[in-house]
Amino acid sequence: MLVNYTGQNRTTEQSWDYVQSTMKCCGWMDPSNWLENVWIKNSSGILYPCSCRNETLPGTDMNETGLCEHLSADVPVYKTVC
């Protein structure tokens, strides 16, 4: 599921976004699970799932779904696993 996540609002993606944002978690074993995502892996920028965004940390985008871009490799995501 995470590998092909596009943020295009498909039902399975909405469910995963909901789980991560409400439970304040990221990934099923580790936030690095997202590094296998096709879009993140092939991006020239530093992307992370917006639903993993830990709003208590400084960062850029505050979208609830999709992929967000960050300027440094230290992305502001939850470290707790889902």
Automatic annotation (TrEMBL):
<dbReference type="InterPro" id="IPR008952">
    <property type="entry name" value="Tetraspanin_EC2_sf"/>
</dbReference>
<keyword id="KW-0812">Transmembrane</keyword>
<dbReference type="GO" id="GO:0016020">
    <property type="term" value="C:membrane"/>
</dbReference>
<keyword id="KW-0472">Membrane</keyword>
<dbReference type="InterPro" id="IPR018499">
    <property type="entry name" value="Tetraspanin/Peripherin"/>
</dbReference>
<protein>
    <submittedName>
        <fullName>Uncharacterized protein</fullName>
    </submittedName>
</protein>
<dbReference type="Pfam" id="PF00335">
    <property type="entry name" value="Tetraspanin"/>
</dbReference>
<keyword id="KW-1133">Transmembrane helix</keyword>
